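tmp note - PhoH-like ATPase
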Amino acid sequence: MTDNKSARPAGKRLFVLDTNVLMHDPTALFRFQEHDIYLPMVVIEELDNNKKGHSEVARNARQASRFLDEVMTGANKADIDAGLPLGEPGESAGQRPTGRIFFQTSSMEANLPATLPGSKPDNNILGTALALRETHAEQTVILVSKDTNMRIKAAAIGIHAEDYRNDQVLEDVNLLYSGNEELTSNFWELHSKEMESWKKEGRTFYRVAGPDAAHWHANEFLFLNGDDNEPASFEAVVRTVEDESAIIETVKDFRGSQKIWGISARNREQNFALNLLMDPEIDFVTMVGQAGTGKTLLTLAAGLAQVLDEQLYSEIIMTRVTVPVGEDIGFLPGTEEEKMAPWMGALMDNLEVLTQSEHNSDWERAATQELVAKRVKIRSLNFMRGRTFLNKYIIIDEAQNLTSKQMKTLITRAGPGTKVICLGNVAQIDTPYLTETNSGLTYVVDRFKGWAHSGHITLLRGERSRLADFASEAL
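out:
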């Protein structure tokens, strides 16, 4: 369902839903407000065919069927023919959609082109939409589908078709919160008169009042001047925001001799990331950036420092969604950790960097690797439901491939003393029907923005090698 209201036909509309819409978001049934919904019988059949299994698609198919069952509770044939009122359980009457849902209760003849045989489920839905356009001339009939080819076929035979976008977090991924903001060159001139400053436990704080402070978010980073590779003349993080005033604190500089597990920041954004990762008051961190920006390396270095050195957490748990980039290699033998090992190449590569040192002997390196291996655990997403993690440092890699529901399931596993870090690149999504604007990673970045115990940073510059940097730009 497009969000561009100017492009929509005027008046009350009748939306014909494709099966993939309900398997993507079962609550789509309640997202069309005053407009009516029509479900072809083949959609019910496809929901039934896809309900078995433990995948997200199967769970959504079952949930959609349960919603439909609740809507039909107590209804007779006459009620179904007249259209059933929609209402999401738990909603008050004023919040419920006022449209009705109609089910296909009889065969409908449609003049489909000979190139589109009606025996295929998709073509059956297209034929139903064509027939509805004749029988419901008072309404604009619109097909809603997540399938691009389905929308292309619909347009080719004259049916108005739209993508379902009600679950979009943002209109454009370029509007995604970056986690930092550059201050204007006259910032000190505008704010110095009413600014307060003080020091506490070796940290410097400022109270800033004015219109700029009103749109800042808690744990957002501010910087003034400076080059990407050099410390700016001023770098700070927003601690609290109240009305048009905010308290900001100067950040620690991890670009010099102050290293984390042998790793130092190579640019401004990496320095901001280490400030978030090393702050015990931050329970949830999101990091977005292209390949080679250092997301995994920084996160692991901060995790090892806080698990082994500071002992803030008992162990590191790393997980990721197992979506293959190419052909699936089939079943993998072994334990849960052994099955996940091929998916954790990034973890192994970065652990190798962190445990190597030119000053250590082979025996010392082997002892370090054994110690680290005991404190770093690999877990599968498939077994996360019902678990509670206490005092853990949890890393969710490739988080852009998770849906918003999966992300909620994972984050709510966190118990007292646990820190969760989500890493990903929204430009590399491999999960069907997920896009940059409705990815679970985009969802949590937007929803956690401004919470006092969460932080986000977008890493911009690759630090892998000159070859990788050029490939990212040129390819």
